[in-house]
Design a protein that fits this description.
heterodimer, A: 107 residues, Immunoglobulin-like, 6-stranded mixed beta sheet, 5-stranded antiparallel beta sheet, 56% strand, globular, B: mainly beta, 4-stranded antiparallel beta sheet, 0% helix
């Protein structure tokens, strides 16, 4: 199945540092999406990267995609306490999610 | 513009009871999805509506779950009778065009079956 698996499962950093999360998937894809979930809330779409793209930026977010390795990374630069949340990658038409990376940014 | 809204936000019921969850998608979004997250596990796809038709219900766990989308507007997800393993957060999402585009999610319904 097209399953996204995020790594690490949990990440704790200090405000101002960069956070990098990785995602691996199993089959070929048309695109890969990243979502964020704040505690007790729904998922919020962050960025979509298509299979013919290698890198994409959105504000402090940078996403890379390596289709040969079936992997993607999400980099959050200059992190803030408000970035504390769980981050998920998702692939496929029906959006298959991984378990997510729980990011904690300490003030 | 209103986002995807779900009701109730929390529901606590006893095993064997019936619960109905409701989702109002963003106006004009023909595609509506239901997902579920059981504690500690992945967010899993349940089903997908295009307007009032079920496009894909391959993720529905069993026949205790019934989803409807009356007139292609709001959707309901009924669990009858509820079992302990049905506990989790049920998310609804909508999109305008369908697969391979971003989804807009509701805040979810936290269902606890005791």
């Amino acid at each position: 199945s097209q399953q996204g698996e995020e790594d690490p499962q949990a990440l704790s950093i200090q405000e101002g540092e960069n956070a990098t999360m990785n995602c691996s998937y199993k089959t070929s894809i048309n695109n890969l999406q990243w979502y964020r979930q704040n505690s007790g809330r729904g998922l919020v779409h962050l960025i979509l990267i298509r299979s013919n793209e290698r890198e994409k930026h959105s504000g402090r977010l940078r996403v890379t995609l390596d289709t040969s390795k079936k992997s993607s990374s999400l980099l959050i630069t200059a992190s803030r306490a408000a970035d504390t949340a769980s981050y998920f990658c998702a692939t496929g038409g029906k959006l298959v999610f991984g378990k997510g990376t729980k990011l904690t940014v300490n003030p | 513009e209103a986002g995807v809204t779900q009701f109730p936000s929390h529901s606590v019921i006893e095993k064997g009871q019936t619960v109905t969850l409701r989702c109002d998608p963003i106006s004009g979004h023909d595609n509506l999805y239901w997902y579920r997250r059981v504690m500690g596990k992945e967010i899993k796809f349940l089903l997908h509506f295009v307007k009032e038709s079920k496009q894909d219900e391959s993720g529905m766990p069993n026949n205790r779950f019934l989803a409807e989308r009356t007139g292609g507007t709001y959707s309901t997800l009924k669990v009858q009778p509820a079992e302990l393993e049905d506990s989790g957060v049920y998310f609804c999402a909508s999109s305008q065009r369908g697969y391979n585009e971003k989804l807009f999610f509701g805040s979810g319904t936290q269902l606890s079956v005791l």
